[in-house]
C-alpha cells in the first residue's frame, strides 16, 4: 500500500454516512479540493458529502486505479 490523495464520497445509509466511492487524484490536494467543490455544487448536501484526504491505498499494476483503500494511520 502507498499513500495517495483521494476524493471520497459518503452517502447516508441507515441514518449514517457510509463511504460509497473513492477516486485517485494524482494531481495532489489542490486538484482534489477543486473537484470536491465542483461535486458539492451538483449534489444534495443533506445526503452526500465529499472529503479529500491522504489515504493508504493498494493500487492496480498500472498505478491508475485504486483496488483497496484504508484510512491513513497518523
Fill in the keyword field for this structure.
18% helix, 53% strand, 1 helix, 74 residues, four-stranded antiparallel beta sheet, alpha+beta
Question: What is the element layout, followed by pairings?
Answer:
Blueprint: E1 2-13, E2 16-24, H1 29-41, E3 48-59, E4 66-71
Antiparallel strand pairs: 1-2, 1-3, 3-4
Task: Please outline what is shown here.
This protein has one helix at 29-41; strands spanning 2-13, 16-24, 48-59, 66-71.
Characterize the structure shown.
This protein has one helix at 29-41, and strands at residues 2-13, 16-24, 48-59, 66-71. It has one domain (2-71). The protein is 18% helix and 53% strand. The chain is an alpha+beta fold and 74 residues long. The two termini are 15 Å apart. Strand 1 (2-13) and strand 2 (16-24) form a beta hairpin. The protein has a four-stranded antiparallel β-sheet with strand order 2-1-3-4.
| Shape verdict | globular
Characterize the largest beta sheet: strand count, sense, and whether it forms a barrel: 4 strands, antiparallel
Residue fraction in strands: over 45%
Mean pLDDT: 90
Query: How large, in whole angstroms, is the Cα Rg?
Result: 13 Å
Measured as a percent range, the helix fraction is: 10-25%
| Number of domain modules | 1
Strand order of the largest sheet: 2-1-3-4
Instruction: Tally the beta strands.
Output: 4
Structural class: alpha+beta
Number of helices: 1
As residue ranges, the low-confidence spans are none
> Whole-Å distance between the termini?
15 Å
What is the helix/strand order? EEHEE
Amino acid at each position: 500500500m502507498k499513500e495517495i490523495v483521494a476524493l471520497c464520497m459518503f452517502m447516508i445509509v441507515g441514518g449514517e454516512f457510509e463511504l460509497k466511492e473513492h477516486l485517485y487524484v494524482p494531481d495532489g490536494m489542490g486538484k482534489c479540493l477543486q473537484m470536491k467543490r465542483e461535486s458539492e455544487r451538483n449534489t444534495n448536501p443533506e445526503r452526500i458529502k465529499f472529503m479529500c484526504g491522504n489515504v493508504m491505498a493498494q493500487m492496480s499494476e498500472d498505478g491508475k486505479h485504486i483496488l483497496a483503500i484504508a484510512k491513513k494511520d497518523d
